[in-house]
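Hey, does this match?
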Amino acid sequence: MKDKLKKYRDKYPSVKFEFMDTFRNAAVCYPEIKLIRISKPVFEHNSEAVMR
């Protein structure tokens, strides 16, 4: 899962992408927002939107 998120880390260094195996949730940390937890399907959908 880290390799999958690495491309997003490289393209968006200011945004930290992390995958939480325990809850199977993806956590996207923005500078202005401390922590957002969203489900994996939503995360993948949002990631595609971010890449556009």
Observations:
- The radius of gyration is 10 Å.
